[in-house]
Design goal:
Layout lengths: L1 H23 L6 H34 L3 E7 L3 E5 L1 H5 L13 E18 L2 E12 L6 E14 L2 E19 L4 E20 L5 E20 L9 E20 L3 E14 L6 H4 L3 E13 L5 E10 L11 E2 L2 E9 L1
Antiparallel strand pairs: 1-3, 1-14, 2-3, 2-13, 3-4, 4-5, 5-6, 6-7, 7-8, 8-9, 9-10, 10-11, 11-12, 12-14
């Protein structure tokens, strides 16, 4: 289109020159001035084209540099945690090798909203809280936190995550002469390396390979009426090396986005168990698929729905409680 426009303008200029020669009955102009007109005309076009091109390039760069702060308020109080029988039988650290691990519990209290700060090539996620079970006996008090960092340089993605969890269950067992409380503490983290194509705030695809460490320990305390409060003493102490692989993708249109993430985690005991039936398996595995749908009917207010499908035992519950398989959150987003 630009070439056609230039040809039309050059023809008009050349026609004007011929018309002027005819009207003034002057001899034909020498070829030199015509040669001089072309460079002047080309310089003029270049001077006008460059600012437009640079402005569009600057606009695209400024558009890519946007950041979004999202605050997700959970609307569902259901959590996945360890069954009480596993705690009473002292097989909580066995992972999926014993009786089923999962139990759905309703927690209420002071959950910290999930906070996501995302730029095109950087993202951080923070969540956790302090919560207590609702309408259930024995009561549980849960304190935990989870943080994730992702950063990309060109197509190379590096990141890390860490977690801390503590849960205390009062009067987990009762007898004629005594009662017992139970408490577990866990922490760990991992780092990863991967690739990313796209924008965290719009559409992207990423793959990660990570290695890390996880530790968990359980303690119990006897409550005897005739004796003052006794100290906690240990029930178990376990350390694991972790290896993880994940693939994540996201597609976004005007007010709707859909993301999918597949995770596979392997846990390897740092001190091998001499008898898996008595002390638990040396090698455990988790595998799950998580989808997240965001609907933003208003510019800064929307709803997020998360669905999780597990393909292996939820061995991660040995360390930290997890959100239920279906979650609904109210999202407040700020550009």
């Amino acid at each position: 289109m630009k070439k056609i426009l230039c040809a039309i303008i050059v023809s008009c200029v050349y026609g004007t020159i011929l018309f002027a020669q005819t009207e003034t009955n002057l001899p034909p102009l020498p070829s030199r001035p015509i040669v001089d007109y072309a460079p002047l005309f080309q310089v003029h076009l270049v001077c006008q084209y460059l600012p437009i091109h640079s402005l569009s390039k600057t606009h695209s760069l400024s558009k890519k540099q946007g950041t979004v702060l999202s605050v997700d308020i959970p609307l569902s109080p259901l959590w996945d945690t360890v069954q009480e029988d596993r705690i009473k039988n002292r097989t909580i650290q066995f992972g999926g090798s014993a009786t089923p691990l999962k139990s759905i519990v309703e927690f209420g209290g002071w959950p910290v909203p999930r906070i996501i700060f995302a730029a095109p090539d950087f993202r951080t996620i923070l969540e956790g809280g302090v919560m207590k079970t609702l309408g259930i006996n024995p009561s549980r008090i849960m304190e935990q936190a989870h943080a994730v960092l992702d950063g990309a340089v060109w197509y190379v993605l590096v990141g890390a995550e860490g977690f801390f969890g503590q849960e205390e269950i009062s009067r987990i067992t009762k007898s004629v002469n005594f009662e017992t409380d139970f408490r577990r503490r866990s922490y760990g983290g991992q780092g990863w390396l991967g690739i990313k194509i796209g924008d965290f705030n719009r559409s992207f695809i990423a793959g990660r390979y990570g290695r890390g460490y996880a530790r968990t320990e359980g303690e119990t305390r006897f409550i005897i009426p005739s004796i003052d409060e006794l100290d906690w003493f240990p029930l178990y102490f376990e350390e694991f090396r972790t290896v993880s692989v994940s693939v994540e993708g996201k597609a976004k249109v005007r007010r709707i986005s859909q993301s999918v993430r597949f995770n596979r985690v392997e846990y390897e005991r740092m001190i091998p168990s001499p008898d898996p039936l008595r002390f638990g398996e040396n090698h455990l595995e988790d595998m799950w698929l998580r989808t997240e749908t965001e609907i933003m009917p208003l510019p800064h207010v929307g709803v997020v729905m998360i669905w999780t499908k597990d393909f292996r035992d939820q061995n991660r519950l040995m360390f930290i409680n997890d959100y239920s398989s279906v979650r609904v959150l109210l999202r407040l987003a700020f550009n």
